[in-house]
Input
Amino acid sequence: MTEPMIIHNIIEKETINTMPLVSFEGRIKVVDNLWDIEKAAISLEKCSIIGIDTETRPSFRKGEVHLVSLLQLATDEVSYLFRLNKVGLTPSIVRLLENPKLLKIGLSLKDDFLMLKKRASFNPEGYIELQEYVCAFGIEEKSLQKIYAILFGEKISKGQRLSNWDSEQLTIAQQEYAAIDAWACLKIYHKLEELKQTGDFVIQKVNEEEICTESI
Output
């Protein structure tokens, strides 16, 4: 008989930094033309559930604002990187975002929707917000990196977060970073659904004072 999984409500940065880095072993498809958008949309419409995330070129000057550069939609095997800075938010992509039968798992979705709507109007349907969903499992953290670390004991690198997502070509490091973020959302959801079905977990509360004492 296996021991139930222990889920901590919070986790400290120092603990995450000791964990091995997450690696994405699936396929990455960069979508930067209309033909590839149609092919990707057709493939994704055959799915019942996907992960979602976005990336935006960072602003380093006051008043400087950029539109969403990248939309990531990931299955368990493939992460599609839609380069919105090159193709825009096309009707095919909007169709995916509005499809209520295609369950989309993400984090901080309200912010993503606000930014995406600056490219094109759409009515989001079929979403689960992980920041709310994890509460039923005692998790109080709100960042993807921390939630993933609690559940899988691995660290999602944030090294490419402030890179130029509008660059002519995405580097391999950028592609892997973007692919992991959307795929990790999906993986978290699968794990939580599995735990919900089996009930094989224990919530263990850790308070801030205990963390500070352990760190001294």
The chain is about 40% helix and 20% strand. Confidence is low (pLDDT under 50) at residues 210-216. Strands lie at 5-8, 27-31, 49-56, 68-74, 78-83, 103-106, 127-129, 201-204.
